[in-house]
Amino acid sequence: MTFVDLDDRRERVLLDLLERYYDAVPRHGARVEDFAALTLFVREGEGWPFYARPARQWSGTVSAADVTRVRVRQRELGIPESFEWIAETTPALRDAVEESGLVVHEHPLMVLDPDAPTPIADGFGGVPVRIVGPDDPVLPSALAVPHLAFAEPGTRIGMAGAAELAESVRARAGNGSVERVVARIRAGLTAVAAAVEDGTALCAGQHQPVGAVSEIVGVGTLPTARRRGLALAVTAALVADARSQGVETVFLSASDDDVARIYSRLGFRRIATALIAEPAE
Question: What pTM was estimated for this model as a whole?
Answer without folding.
Answer: 0.91
